[in-house]
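Exercise 7.
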Amino acid sequence: MQAIQSEKKRLLSLDVFRGITVAAMILVNNPGDWSHIYAPLEHSDWNGCTPTDLIFPFFLFIVGVSIVYALDNKLSDLKNHNTFILSISKRAAILFGLGLLMFLQPYFDFAHFRIPGVLQRIAIVYFVCALLFLKVKQEKLFTIFIIILIAYWLMMILIPVPDFGEANLGKETNLGAWLDRFLLTENHLWINSKTWDPEGILGTLPSIASGLFGILMGKIFKSKQKTEENKVVWLFVYGFIAFLFGLAWDLFFPINKSLWTSSYVLYAGGLASISLALLYWIIDVKGFSRFTKPFVIYGVNAITVYFVSGVVARSMNILKVNLDGQVVSWKDYLYLQFYAPNFSPENASVAWAISFVLIWFLILWVMYKKGIVIKV
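Solution. The predicted structure, written as tokens, is:
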């Protein structure tokens, strides 16, 4: 825990982008009723990309940019690289452990709990990308990025799937789904499927490329040879090129969040780069920052609010109460009492989600006013 840094020492647009992203994560993860959700707030059933599908890759892109800001000045300090690696490893282990804890509590049934997850994937991406940033020559990072995307594509379309047959991109029959079942068994996969996991093992490989995309764009931000205007232009250019390549690759390797396809990496990474460039131009270059405070408040404690809000939401679904002779969860009790009777089904569902985001904003605002940032 430490005092909040002066905003002048931070890339304010990055904090805002992080805050928008984590607030969106909490919003889409906590509808009042999962059977009544507006289409943009749902994930694609399989191929395709909704606004909700962009949230996680945006966050991994932000992780990559943040690695540059955290470690760029340490590249030349070769004597202390082992110390930096130890720090990176500890942080990744804590993130991974928090992800496991979210699924273990409150029963701690080690025989039946999900091992993959959002925080677990963030931990792996952070660890691998930070190590690559420290240990690999900077000009080779782009090559590694391309190799990952092409290698994953070839694996998914060429390697036969054991117990099934030829390579395919089906939900339960693709190579990644088979690997998840083989290594983790159905007891440790996503509860909604039991046969595959949207944060599965093989899909973590291209998600590392999403983090590398952020590093590559972060290097532009840190460049001393480029003016602020040039940085914006290049972020837009590279973002737009990636976006177009993603759309082109989609024709034969469909954009798919659950598989984290190579086309999805480029498509989402391109949009993330364009979005951050726009925020950077508005906030850091032009100085229009009056609207940023709520998002900064979310951004500086992003992992903390994601984890704690997830634990609270899970607890509210587990704890039971009696309602008109029926046993329902605390969450359902509050929703049925105060939201469902007063709105249409979809509006009630989104009103609950917005309320959840606002309640956590109030908690984070108190932390911010007290100068508290919990570093994970």
